[in-house]
Specification:
The protein is α+β, with helices and mostly antiparallel strands. The chain is about 45% helix and about 10% strand. Helix 2 crosses helix 11 (about 315-320). InterPro entries: GCL_type2/YbdK_subfam, GCS2, Gln_synth/guanido_kin_cat_dom, UCP012666.
């Protein structure tokens, strides 16, 4: 699509009447609530799924690499925000022995031929939380900020041709379009800085849709501890840092900068405006969850036509959900009436070093929701404010964060006690779904070892860079060296290995 064609499409989307769009969404929401009450969105069992985002690098230099849209289509991946991004999704499967195995095998089956095909173009797909090496001959700042004006519309040069992404930079909604992190300063004209980050997103479809708020309550309480285990982005591309001493950047680094990137790019800089990217509230009822999605401000209303999918009768609600950027969010959709589901998307986790690590998070998240809700675990009484604090503490400090949990004996901040309970209930939840004790332990083990060794991917990266800086290596070279090591280690372990193998 040419810049002028894209600009015309963006202008058309901006002409949509926002009040009329909102009225359509509110009307659809009432029909959606009725369908939920009638049991349309119930499942016979718990169902799991996973989204995996990657970025592309030059296989010879490790520099970020643009991927042509035809190549993405040939390897069966979906485009994301940046031209360097790719996304794959697993088919939903029952949470049982065979369903989890199918999740892992589907990722392997799709990623192996994709890597072989892209390697012919000297491209490697990387699973990582935040890229640090810009394209050859470019700076990260220029790559993220490059844009043009076409017929009065601001177009991001390195963004995919999705109308929605480009429209965000041309609406009245005051997205920050900036980076707000320690010792990093960047302001852009589009949402392109968000393309720094990639994630994994486990999904759990709940059996009985009206029970979603109870599952959701537990999902918020485990968000901090799971994020602390998964942190994987302590560094930015070096040219984005302010002119400060290397020691200051190391001292102030957070273990998971992905959270701050998403929040500062898409939230309004004016703190009086409600945040769109944030830790969400608890919901008392499933109707409250639907109402929250509908009440959320729509950044880009679009003219929608109802197609043949079952959930196209809720097209405006689905569109609003697309910019309901909470770190944990409820979803109601389904291509057919029989596939209609109510699910929880868990969005805080950065992309992980290996497929098995990603599946471990999927299994632990699903197992925890299964066990904690059935056992009516007392952590449900943890105050929401404390759960939110856990989350942002984990973002900054990973496994060194101050976390608070509630056991049957009361409140605890002891990391061994917290994760001992966490893993025991994950195992219990998987056992309740038919897995053997040994199979459940195997899924949990990659994360259990992170706790035992007090190591996360972010801490591994940070340790490498700090050692190199202490040896006299300039910070940019240390970060690029770390990135090269990460990519080489992943090359050996992505498909069948685990992150903790990197430590031997």
């Amino acid at each position: 699509m040419s810049a002028s064609e894209l600009a015309a499409a963006v202008r058309e989307s901006l002409a949509v009447d926002a009040e009329e769009f909102q009225a359509e969404a509110a009307e659809e929401a009432e029909r959606l609530k009725a369908e939920v009450r009638d049991g349309t969105f119930d499942n016979s069992e718990t169902i799991v799924g996973l989204e995996l985002e990657l970025y592309a690098v030059d296989d010879r230099t490790d520099a970020l690499q643009r991927v042509s849209r035809p190549l993405l289509e040939r390897i069966g991946f979906e485009k994301e925000l940046g031209l360097h991004n790719a996304e794959m999704q697993t088919s939903p499967q029952p949470l049982n022995t065979y369903g989890l195995a199918a999740q892992e095998q589907e990722l392997q089956a799709n990623l192996v031929p994709a890597q072989e095909r892209t390697r012919a173009d000297n491209i490697r797909l990387v699973s990582d939380g935040l890229w640090t090496v810009p394209p050859n001959g470019e700076t990260a700042r220029s790559y993220l900020c490059d844009s043009v004006e076409a017929d009065g519309i601001r177009i991001g040069t390195n963004m995919s041709d999705s109308v929605r992404y480009h429209a965000m930079a041309n609406t009245d909604y005051p997205s920050g379009l900036r980076l707000d992190a320690p010792n990093v300063t960047l302001e852009a004209d589009t949402v392109m800085p968000e393309s720094l980050i990639t994630s994994i997103q486990p999904h759990v479809q709940v059996p009985h849709a009206p029970d979603l708020p109870e599952y959701f309550r537990y999902a918020l309480r485990i968000a901090g501890p799971l994020l602390a285990l998964g942190v994987n982005s302590p560094f930015f591309p070096p040219d984005l840092y302010d002119d400060v001493p290397d020691a200051a950047i190391l001292d102030d680094a957070w273990m998971e900068h992905r959270i701050s990137v998403f929040e500062s790019v898409l939230n309004a800089a004016d703190e009086s405006i409600p945040k769109k990217v944030c830790f969400p509230p608890d919901f008392e009822t499933v109707d409250d969850a639907i109402d929250a999605i509908v009440a959320d401000e729509t950044i880009v209303p679009m003219k929608l036509t109802r197609g043949e999918r079952f959930d196209d009768q809720f097209a405006h609600v689905r569109h609003k959900h697309g910019s309901y950027w909470r770190w944990v969010r409820p979803v109601f959709d389904g291509a057919t009436r029989s596939q209609a589901n109510a699910r929880i998307e868990f969005r805080p986790l950065p992309a992980q070093p290996t497929i098995r690590d990603a599946i471990a998070f999927q299994a632990v998240f699903a197992g925890l929701l299964e066990s904690l809700t059935r056992r009516e675990h007392p952590v449900r009484t943890l105050e929401w404010e404390r759960a939110e604090k856990n989350f942002y503490n984990a973002m900054r400090n990973g496994l060194d964060a101050e976390l608070v949990w509630i056991t049957g004996a009361g409140e605890t901040a002891d990391i061994e006690e917290i994760y001992g309970e966490l893993f025991e209930h994950a195992r219990d939840g998987l056992r309740l779904q038919g897995l053997s004790s040994e199979a459940a332990r195997q899924y949990i083990r990659p994360l259990r070892e992170r706790v035992d060794r007090r190591i996360t991917p972010a801490r591994w990266k940070f340790g490498y860079v700090r050692r190199r800086v202490q040896e006299g290596v300039p910070l940019p070279e240390a970060i690029w060296g770390m990135q090269a090591q990460y990519i080489r280690k992943q090359e050996e372990t992505l498909i069948e290995g685990e992150f903790t193998e990197w430590l031997s």
